[in-house]
Each structure stands twice: as C-alpha cells, then as structure tokens.
Design a protein that fits this description.
Number of strands: 8
Strand content: 25-35%
Number of helices: 2
Radius of gyration: 23 Å
Shape: globular
Helix content: 10-25%
Distance between the termini: 87 Å
Largest sheet: 6 strands, antiparallel
Length: about 180
C-alpha cells in the first residue's frame, strides 16, 4: 500500500497537481496547451456549415490557424447557370469573421446582392475569384485571407482579418 501511495505522490508531483487541488493558479510551466495558438492550418472540411440553400447558415469556426490562401468549397453543387468572368451573379451571402467568430453581415432575409461584371466587380478579390464557377441553386464556402479581403481593415472589419463567407447562387445573368 505504501508503494502505491508513493507512486501516486510522484505522479501528482510530476504533473504539477500536487498541492493544487481546487486552485486556479497556473502551473510553473506557463500557459496550457489549450490556450496556445493553433499551428495546424485550416482546411475547408474543418469548418462546419449547417442550414439549407436559401436560409441563413450557421458557421462553426474550428480551432486552427487561418490559411493564407483563398479556399473555395462547394457545399451544395448548383444545377443552374454557372458564374463566369463578366457575368452578373445575384447572391445571398453570410459573413463571419475568423478571429472573433462573429457574424458581421448577411443578406439572408433581405434583398440578394448583385455582383456585376464578376472578375472586375467592385468587391473584394476573394469574391471576384471565389464566386467564379458557382452555379445557380449552389452554396459555396469561401475562406478569404486578408490579402484578398479587407487587408488593413475597414467597413467594420479588423486589420488582417480572415473572412468566412457562405454564398448562395440565386441567379446568373450573362454579360451584356
């Protein structure tokens, strides 16, 4: 019995738990691994998006490092006309910011948004590149790095913020 107690005491001391029962003090080793910044880069499949086409989505942002690349993933492959460079895409969108996981803007429940002359439209680069190929009745996830978003910030967005968009393709109008 004495050996079992000795082994348990050594194990508690080695993990920093001895004498800390009920204490909220951090261990001498510094911050816990859970509080450390994630080092694994995010992938599209790490993000959980729920909700049907036409309704406001719910976006769950994972604990990973934002990517520096534009990430495009079709959540629902559409069946209608495809957005091409020069077309007008009428879309609904839902914007969540990566760092604070807050919804910053949405067109769901409002009037859909027209992106005229896709590829050269007066929108962020992440949209000009990221909605090409989206089809009517399709839903797409865009993970937009700061360089293709708002960069140094603006329009209520923090500097160097990664943007998470869920975009529904409502209508595609050919170039005039």
């Amino acid at each position: 019995m004495r050996n079992v107690l000795l082994i348990a005491s050594v194990a508690l001391a080695a993990t920093g738990l001895a004498g800390c029962a009920g204490s909220a003090q951090p261990s001498a080793g510094g911050s816990s691994p859970a509080a450390a910044a994630p080092t694994n880069p995010c992938k599209a499949d790490d993000f959980k998006v729920t909700g049907d086409f036409g309704s406001a989505p719910q976006v769950e942002i994972p604990n990973c490092k934002p990517t520096s690349e534009l990430v495009i993933k079709d959540l629902v492959v559409g069946t209608g006309a495809e957005v091409k460079t020069g077309t007008t895409a009428t879309v609904n969108y839902h914007l969540t910011t990566f760092s604070d996981k807050k919804v910053k803007d949405t067109s769901f429940g409002k009037k859909p948004f027209d992106v005229e002359n896709v590829g050269q439209a007066p929108v962020i680069d992440g949209w000009n590149e990221g909605i090409v190929g989206l089809k009517e009745q399709g839903r797409r996830l865009l993970i937009v790095p700061p360089e293709k978003g708002y960069g140094e910030g603006g329009r209520g967005i923090k500097p160097n913020e990664t943007l998470i968009f869920v975009i529904d393709g409502v209508k595609v109008t050919p170039a005039a």
